[in-house]
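URGENT: need a sanity check before tomorrow's submission.

F., can you look over the Glycerol-3-phosphate dehydrogenase [NAD(P)+] record below? I want to be sure the sequence and structure line up before it goes out.
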Amino acid sequence: MMKVSVIGTGSWGTALANVLSENGHEVLMWGKTKATIEEINTHHTNEKYLKDIELHAKLAASDVLEDVVHHAEIIIIAVPTKAIRSVMQQINQVINNKKTFIHVSKGIEPHTFKRISEMITEEIDIEYMEGVAVLSGPSHAEELALKHPTTVAVASENETIRQIAQDIFMNEYFRIYTNDDLVGVEIGGALKNIIALAAGITDGLGYGDNAKAALMTRGLAEITRLGTRMGADPMTFLGLAGIGDLIVTCTSVHSRNWKCGNMLGKGLTLEEALSNMGMVVEGVRTTEAANEMADAFGVEMPITQSLYKVLFEGLDVHEGVQNLMNREKTNE
Ligand SMILES: NC(=O)c1ccc[n+]([C@@H]2O[C@H](COP(=O)([O-])OP(=O)(O)OC[C@H]3O[C@@H](n4cnc5c(N)ncnc54)[C@H](O)[C@@H]3O)[C@@H](O)[C@H]2O)c1
Ligand SMILES: O=P(O)(O)OC[C@H](O)CO
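Structure tokens as predicted:
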């Protein structure tokens, strides 16, 4: 059994930390909210982020980053994409020896187009970096916490790290597949949130299954176009981190991206929808990044580009759908 640190006490960090504790590892979580730390340590719950779940009795948390970073050689990074750089900079201030970072976040940084593993590598001094991996796939925290069968992929350029990640997480309800396509696994997880927002919008508008199937299929086409342009293996998008995550996020009542889109389809503004959520909706910022990337690389991404206009330029959602339907005739 191993010592593992988990950075982030939100839904996904808590669900994964709980799996690791269930698997017998000595897990210490870090979060910045004292009340959540106290709740995990004394009541074994995290009601705001994982309602009605009793956490493993040995799962511990602290708000002292230095203690959590020094606790283990394996560090799971589970904060929203927007917080990655600042959290990694704080870790770099207190890090004392080589660490393996396994991140579980889904996003791309606007303007720089950096993937999360790239941001982590940039922010940690090279002498402290053992390697980096991503864990991604169709996985809602609420279901994993209930021990419902869940499968994800873990990708890294380093085979040993892929195997370590597979070994520490895998159990009878959480199945991990290794994958050597770090770029594809990160891009698939990030871009599916854009399509889930759009699927929420069409559901909110009252359109049916035809519209959603069209979005998912054509959405996968544009994810694959941008992903391969960034160096991903196109086959990755037919796996867990591609179509798998696209299915779960576009069709699940748990999805925050779908829920946010659904509110937009029902007439709420983006600001109103986001303030109703209270949890991270990664697809909004990723739409900004992917829209810029589509322009910069000359990649056709009509769904992303229409959604960008809805989210950031005030385009009416009905008009956004009409624009997509009335595009130039083309072949599949
Ligand atoms: N929730 C899921 O089911 C799920 C599944 C797979 C992947 N993910 C991904 O995991 C990542 C984290 O999502 P989540 O669902 O846990 O989000 P969440 O909204 O449930 O929790 C986010 C956590 O990050 C903390 N945080 C935010 N900014 C911070 C900062 N600057 N410094 C320190 N802590 C900060 C918040 O306090 C909170 O504890 C996202 O990229 C998401 O896409 C989530
Ligand atoms: O709730 P969402 O929309 O952030 O999706 C969570 C996970 O990424 C699903 O795999």
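My own read: Residues 191-325 form a domain with the N-(1-d-carboxylethyl)-l-norvaline Dehydrogenase; domain 2 fold (CATH 1.10.1040.10). Residues 205 and 265 are 5 Å apart (CA to CA). If you see anything odd, call me.
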